[in-house]
């Protein structure tokens, strides 16, 4: 595995191998604490991040490796006009593997040109976020025990949410998945997802405008925030930001074994009172993100 840019770069078999390895890390973390000794991860984050950057760093440190990098474009030579390709090739002189986040779609792919070390796309604009997808898959694997025969509700910003797009792509490869797409008209899933992913894969789906009308049928509810940074018009953001808020009342109609997920950060789309519900898996999901990134770093470096 040279680079990971899109979640579809991984076969189902490769994903299963990563899940098995993550399971083993969870079972006995001490067994892996020196696997990346003398290896260095560079976190090149041209866009602010908390969970993803710290998760990568924690993963590498717990594997016994080292970490270097930057947390915003302003603190890198991009502020001087350096190209993303030149930045990546320079950083590769000091690191064995790179995790890159960038606000522009396709930037991590462009950065792979001439690169001698593996690069992991840690999110590029509204396009892809493969390690979040792996985190989501590990969460479903740990919480449900299987991927087939699930009704998956995706709620909120389905237009700009790269985590949603990546997860839809990944889950279409499993059997009998049914998607319930819950969003306002303005934030529907992009047309290319309908045409190039759902319809081409013959995956069933339905659209809904409220959570209440579909809550009782969901096995998974994947909440997303309405992202201010993806809007060009502030008035549109203000009008739509509170469109969907999950609270205790809405959950009264849900299945007893519903799994509630969220890629975080949360603003107000999930009431804090929901945190006490055992069905709320989003903080467990954040922890799973560290373990799957540990597995991915090992695999991409060819380490056992």
Jot down its keywords.
304 residues, alpha/beta, 10 helices, 35% helix, 15% strand
Chart the SSEs and their pairings.
Elements: H1 12-27, E1 40-45, H2 51-62, E2 66-70, H3 84-91, E3 97-102, H4 107-111, E4 119-124, H5 130-144, E5 151-155, H6 162-171, E6 178-182, H7 191-199, E7 204-208, E8 220-223, H8 234-240, H9 248-251, E9 259-261, H10 282-300
Parallel strand pairs: 1-2, 1-3, 3-4, 5-6, 5-8, 6-7, 8-9
Helix pairs in contact: 1-5, 1-10, 2-10, 5-6, 5-10
Description:
This protein is an alpha/beta fold and 304 residues long. It has ten helices and nine strands. The chain has helices at residues 12-27, 51-62, 84-91, 107-111, 130-144, 162-171, 191-199, 234-240, 248-251, 282-300, and strands spanning 40-45, 66-70, 97-102, 119-124, 151-155, 178-182, 204-208, 220-223, 259-261. A five-stranded parallel β-sheet has the order 7-6-5-8-9, with helices on one face. Strands 2-1-3-4 form a four-stranded parallel β-sheet. Helix 4 (107-111) links the parallel strand 3 (97-102) and strand 4. Helix 1 (12-27) packs across helix 10 (282-300). The radius of gyration is 19 Å and the shape is globular. It starts with 11 loop residues before the first helix and ends with a helix.
């Amino acid at each position: 595995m040279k680079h990971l840019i899109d979640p579809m770069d991984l076969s189902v078999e490769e994903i299963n191998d990563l899940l098995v390895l993550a399971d083993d890390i969870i079972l006995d973390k001490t067994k892996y604490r020196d696997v990346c000794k003398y290896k260095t991860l560079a976190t090149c984050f041209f866009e602010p991040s908390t969970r993803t950057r710290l998760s990568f760093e924690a993963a590498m440190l717990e594997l016994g490796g080292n970490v270097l990098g930057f947390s915003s474009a302003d603190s890198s030579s991009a502020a001087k006009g350096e190209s993303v390709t030149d930045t990546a090739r320079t950083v590769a002189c000091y690191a064995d593997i790179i995790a890159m986040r960038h606000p522009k779609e396709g930037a991590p792919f462009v950065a792979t040109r001439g690169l001698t070390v593996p690069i992991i796309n840690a999110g590029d604009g509204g396009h892809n976020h493969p390690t979040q997808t792996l985190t989501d898959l590990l969460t479903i694997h740990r919480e449900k025990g299987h991927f087939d025969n699930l009704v998956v509700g995706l709620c909120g910003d389905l237009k700009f949410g790269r985590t949603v797009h990546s997860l839809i792509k990944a889950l279409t490869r499993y059997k009998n998945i049914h998607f319930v797409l819950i969003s306002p008209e303005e934030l529907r899933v992009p047309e290319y997802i309908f045409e190039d992913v759902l319809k081409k894969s013959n995956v069933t789906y339905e659209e809904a405008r409220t959570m209440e009308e579909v809550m009782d049928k969901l096995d998974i509810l994947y909440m997303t925030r309405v992202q201010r940074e993806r809007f060009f018009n502030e008035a549109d953001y203000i009008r739509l930001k509170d469109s969907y808020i999950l609270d205790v009342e809405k959950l009264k109609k849900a299945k007893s074994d519903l799994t509630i997920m969220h890629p975080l950060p949360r603003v107000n789309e999930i009431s804090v009172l929901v945190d006490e519900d055992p069905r709320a898996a989003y903080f467990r999901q954040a922890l799973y993100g560290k373990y799957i990134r540990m597995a991915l770093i090992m695999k991409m470096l060819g380490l056992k």
